[in-house]
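ARCHIVE CARD
CATEGORY: sequence design from structure
SOURCE FIELD: tokenized fold
FIELD CONTENT:
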């Protein structure tokens, strides 16, 4: 768990704008016309439409993407009843999490009342302003009453996260733990210590998924909740069992699962020792668990342990659930969040923990790649696939159970749109994936023994993009896969220079190309034996594979040099690096980012022409800006002259795309400058930026990423006569995967000169 001082926490909340949230406009507010449309008189039009048909509020307001986070401060975290206003930092925090993880806008509302009827009445009267209601930090049993009454009064999702969010994540973890120890939910004995909102909800959901009533013993501060026990409320009595057990110590004997949502240090090593073989222990009291994991491990080596803390494995963290549950519920306009939707969420979360983890998770774990097992039964909150998997599962469950008011026709497309909410590059890349899936390709992953290449190759196969080809030792690859907990199947090919017939064919091929460049036949044979880039390039050049991704073990320039032993540039083109920057405001292509240090005017014109060709293939209407530190001659310099000459060359070529220059980037990208330079030939902001030199291109792309928040795809290697891409040395698995997909896409949509 991260350590910080009280001052650091206070400084975090007070620096700049106090608090953690703000409201920003989603429409332009720059002109008088904008204001007239946003407010009076333009706003009257949607007002009248909504008055006639309230459902139109989803079309003309932010209702469908807004959740109210509501509390009365009666049970704030583990701090207790501190009042409504004191809960505001927590509610703002909840709103931040909604936005960060699911792109949901949230408003925090603190209701200064302890009267359940007052709270119900207040929320019911304002509820229809929102797409959903998230209740938070309300003491039990009031939370049960408030939630149920609001569900009865409102036709929007009402969700008490302390109950159901905790339950969904807990159940997901328990399902996976049971899977690991080969036990069935229908046969295990469960001890639940803590009969508050979270504890009751957890047990209710486990029972909904098959846990028999008789197999659960629940305890509160007074001990076991048994049939006939006096002075227990209706919510606890629903889980009373006919038993002679009265204490936690008695109940723990022979138990398969312990679920703690109670108080610190109430479980002893002796209790743990008395549990059944392979016990599952969820000690989730916060901030200190019922028993610390170190004590459990000293007592039982066979235990699977989860807590509510981030400094131990298997953290039960509600952020894994509530953002995505609401996302799915909002998108199908669910009238409520029912048991079917909760179960679907729990199963989706559980399933994700079994998948190979994403790069973002590796980064969050300090470079370690966790894999499914006793120390990884719950996915990381930073797994970017949560929104795609969980939200879609919730929406599907809502539609199947009849509570959805809007049908999502294409679930696959919906999943893609979910991913794109948090990463704008996803929508761009999904178009590429969809083309490949119709005609899967055979793509070489040249450094086949490297972990990142292996994982990317498996992702390529699992996403239905085609057959990955690994170059390397079959024995080393098999061992590497084993070490990673992955398996090799027949749909993955392995090639190497041990195949004498293949080796001789490739050596002869490059000898014909290189014999007049000083290469002897034995030099070519040595290249084929020792150089995987050359070997893979031959495979592609001779039609034994559709494309290749390489480069992660050497520099871009060295890799390109090796490729050029085998592959020529496309007729009339030159090789260069094209980086695609994808941001919420749009997508731009930046060149040359990797090959030509100081391209000539002719080079710049060639790069512009090829960039326009690629942009058009990817579905964009190309608009090229030749960038400089000057705009149309002020001030003029040597590099500016080069760019002006490149523009003149493009004019002489009579190219079929818009271009302009020399110009500064703000003039190229901001439409307001059209009034200052009305003669500009660009009809709209540029989407292809041609840089004057490689250093300016490299610097710009990094700044765009770090300061502008853009996602970078590439650099793509453009201008070769074969679909080969070079990943950079620091490439993540996702980078390699995307570049492989682009190589596959290129092989389908670009006409290359074929070899016999």
């Amino acid at each position: 768990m991260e350590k910080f001082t009280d001052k650091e926490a206070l400084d975090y909340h007070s620096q700049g704008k106090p608090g953690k949230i703000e409201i920003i406009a989603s429409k332009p507010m720059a002109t008088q016309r904008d204001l007239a449309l946003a407010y009076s008189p333009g706003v009257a039009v949607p007002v009248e439409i909504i008055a006639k048909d309230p459902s139109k509020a989803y079309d003309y307001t932010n209702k469908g993407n807004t959740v109210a986070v509501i509390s009365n401060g009666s049970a704030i975290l583990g701090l207790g009843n501190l009042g409504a206003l004191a809960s505001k930092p927590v509610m703002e925090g909840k709103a931040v999490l909604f936005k960060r993880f699911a792109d949901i806008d949230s408003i925090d509302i603190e209701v200064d009342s302890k009267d359940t009827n007052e709270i119900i009445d207040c929320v019911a009267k304002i509820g229809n302003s929102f797409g959903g209601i998230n209740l938070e930090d309300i003491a039990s049993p009031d939370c049960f009453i408030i939630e149920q009454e609001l569900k009865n009064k409102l036709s929007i999702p009402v969700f008490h996260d302390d109950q159901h969010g905790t339950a969904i994540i807990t159940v997901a973890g328990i399902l996976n733990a049971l899977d690991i120890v080969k036990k069935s939910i229908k046969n295990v004995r469960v001890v639940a210590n803590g009969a508050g909102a979270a504890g009751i909800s957890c047990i209710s959901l486990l029972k909904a998924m098959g846990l028999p009533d008789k197999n659960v013993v629940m305890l509160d501060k007074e001990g076991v909740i048994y049939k006939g026990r006096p002075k227990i409320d209706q919510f606890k009595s629903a889980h009373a069992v006919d038993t002679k057990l009265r204490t936690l110590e008695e109940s723990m004997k022979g138990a398969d699962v312990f679920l703690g949502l109670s108080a610190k240090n109430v479980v002893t090593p002796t209790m743990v020792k008395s549990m059944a073989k392979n016990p599952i222990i969820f000690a989730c009291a916060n901030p200190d668990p019922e028993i610390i994991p170190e004590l459990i491990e000293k007592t039982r080596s066979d235990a699977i342990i989860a807590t509510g803390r981030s400094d131990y494995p298997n953290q039960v963290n509600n952020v894994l659930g509530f953002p995505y549950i609401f996302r799915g519920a909002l998108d199908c306009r669910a009238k409520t969040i029912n048991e079917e939707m909760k179960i679907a969420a729990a199963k989706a979360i559980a399933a994700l923990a079994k998948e190979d983890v994403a790069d973002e998770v590796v980064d969050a774990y300090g470079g370690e790649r966790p894999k499914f097992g006793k120390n990884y039964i719950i996915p990381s909150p930073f797994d970017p696939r949560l929104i795609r998997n969980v939200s879609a599962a919730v929406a599907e469950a809502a539609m199947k159970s009849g509570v959805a008011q809007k049908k999502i026709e294409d679930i696959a497309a919906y999943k893609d749109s979910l991913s794109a909410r948090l990463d704008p590059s996803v929508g761009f890349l999904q178009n590429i994936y969809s083309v490949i899936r119709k005609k899967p390709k055979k793509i070489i992953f040249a450094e086949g023994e490297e972990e990142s290449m292996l994982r990317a190759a498996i992702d390529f196969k699992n996403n239905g993009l085609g057959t990955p080809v690994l170059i390397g030792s079959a024995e080393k690859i098999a061992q590497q896969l084993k070490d990673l907990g992955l398996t090799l199947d027949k749909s993955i090919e392995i090639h190497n220079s041990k195949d004498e017939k293949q080796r001789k064919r490739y050596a002869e091929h490059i000898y014909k190309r290189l014999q007049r460049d000083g290469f002897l036949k034995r030099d070519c044979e040595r290249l084929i034996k020792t150089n995987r880039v050359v070997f893979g390039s031959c495979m592609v050049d001779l039609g034994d594979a559709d494309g290749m991704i390489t480069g992660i073990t050497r520099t871009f320039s060295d890799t390109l040099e090796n490729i050029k032993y085998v592959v020529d540039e496309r007729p009339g083109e030159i090789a260069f690096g094209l980086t695609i920057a994808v941001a919420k405001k749009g997508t731009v292509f930046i060149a040359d980012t990797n090959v030509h240090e100081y391209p000539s005017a002719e080079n710049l014109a060639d790069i512009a022409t090829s960039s326009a060709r690629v942009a058009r293939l990817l579905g964009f209407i190309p608009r090229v800006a030749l960038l400089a530190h000057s705009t149309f001659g002020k001030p003029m310099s040597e590099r500016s002259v080069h760019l002006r000459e490149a523009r003149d060359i493009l004019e002489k070529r009579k190219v079929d795309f818009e271009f302009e220059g020399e110009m500064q980037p703000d003039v190229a990208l901001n439409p307001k400058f059209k009034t200052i330079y009305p003669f500009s030939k660009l009809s709209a902001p540029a989407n292809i930026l041609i840089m004057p030199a490689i250093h300016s291109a490299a610097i710009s792309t990094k700044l765009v990423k770090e300061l502008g928040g853009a996602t970078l795809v590439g650099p793509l290697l453009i201008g070769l006569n074969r679909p080969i891409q070079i990943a950079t040395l620091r490439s993540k698995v996702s980078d390699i995967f995307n570049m492989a997909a682009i190589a596959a896409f290129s092989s389908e949509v670009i006409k290359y000169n074929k070899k016999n």
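CARD ANNOTATION: Residues 161-180 form the longest helix (20 residues). The chain has five domains: 6-26+62-156, 164-316, 320-422, 432-563, 576-719.
SHELF: design records, drawer C
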